[in-house]
Amino acid sequence: MLSNYKTSRQYNAPFVFLPHDLWGADSTQNSSAPYPGDNGDWTYYDAYLTRLFADMKANNMVSGVIWDSWNEPDLGTVFWGRSQQQYLQMWGRTYAKVRAAFGNTVPISGPSTSSEPSTNNNWWKNFASFVKTNGTVPDQWAWHMETGGGSMTGSFGGLQTILKQYGLPQKPVNINEYAVFNEQVPSGAAWWIAQLERVNAIGLRGNWLSANQLHDFLASLLSKPGAPNTYSATGTGYYTNGEYQVYKYYAKSMTGYRVGTTVSSDYILDAYATVDKTNKVARVLVGSRLQSGTWYVRLDNLSSLGLPTSGSLNIHTLGFPDKGHYGQVDAPNDLGYYAHDYSGNSVTFPIYQTDKTTAYAFDFALP
After folding, report:
1. Which of 195, 140, 202 is nearest to 175 (CA)?
2. Strands 281-288 and 333-342, bridge-based pairing
3. Which of 32, 141, 147, 345 is the most buried (most CB within 10 A)?
């Protein structure tokens, strides 16, 4: 845990700390494994937290930590094999001890459920009622989007309804696991980027690897010779895959400010767009949710960018190919320029999604 923390902090990344893993509830525990508060006894758990806090302080593992008390406690017996009532007691107890040990220096996220917030979700409603009355509201509302369905529009809307119903405050949203394994391709990355950006949520990709691979391959964004079956866990020679190139483009090229986008009516195609007036370029990143087909992207209010309300717009296209999780992709494919005639202050162009995994980026110059 300390090693992972130090690596994260080398790049100034915040570190979501999962103390349930250190406790031993990592999905591999047997049916007789103990949980905090069993039979009303908190002795072992209190001692565990006391030692853990001391070790964190002794190793300077405080700055940048986000405390995430328990992973997916709503998911049957996989990580939390007890009642929700016992979980809520653990939440309140842990919250108080973290605050006593670190004050507000270490933000607390939760409940990090496998399910989305919704008024039809009794687990979430019970949690909301408890933190309201107990005074233990998390600093970040956290849950996972890894079922292969749903959208941020729906889940974020469900959170807003619950917050209003229980009189709870707005807090940053942390989707600290998103995307199932087969969505971790260029098109899926672009789709998820657009989804998370729309509601201004923090996002952390799910890591579906295990054993040595769990701590290698940058959660399926990198590969190396021999992967996945005959590679050396300590070997080097890393190279990037297609999904990595999407995140690189998003992080490095999509500068300036974010502009509003709308997901397609079928929720299959989504887009993220930025305008950089300093470098005089606008960019649009587009991805489908693992489906092929033809869609149309419409850019409105072009005059707000200093463009005429009618004319011809020369749009540059990049394609981000997929060669599998372990296939090497060093850069996107430059697909050239195409001039689109337009009028009415709006331009429309097609997306021909002939496969399910390629993402596309479009950019055009500003006057």
Report:
1. 202
2. unpaired
3. 141
Pairing of strands 239-240, 346-353: unpaired
CA distance 259 to 313: 19
- What the block records as the tokens of 102 is 């670190």
Cα 57 to chain center, whole Å? Answer: 28
* pTM, to two decimals: 0.96
Banded pLDDT at 76 (limits 50, 70, 90): confident
154: helix, strand or coil: helix
Same domain for 164 and 271, yes or no, is no
Q: Are 322 and 358 in contact (CB under 8 A)?
A: yes
Token readout for 269 is 């195609």
**Confidence check: pLDDT of 206 > 90:** yes
Write out the residue range of the structural domain in which residue 89 sits.
2-178
Per-residue pLDDT reduced to its tens digit, 77-130: 999 999 999 999 999 999 999 999 999 999 999 999 999 999 999 999 999 999
The answer to whether residue 307 is domain-embedded is: yes
Q: Which run of H or E residues covers position 320?
A: strand 311-320
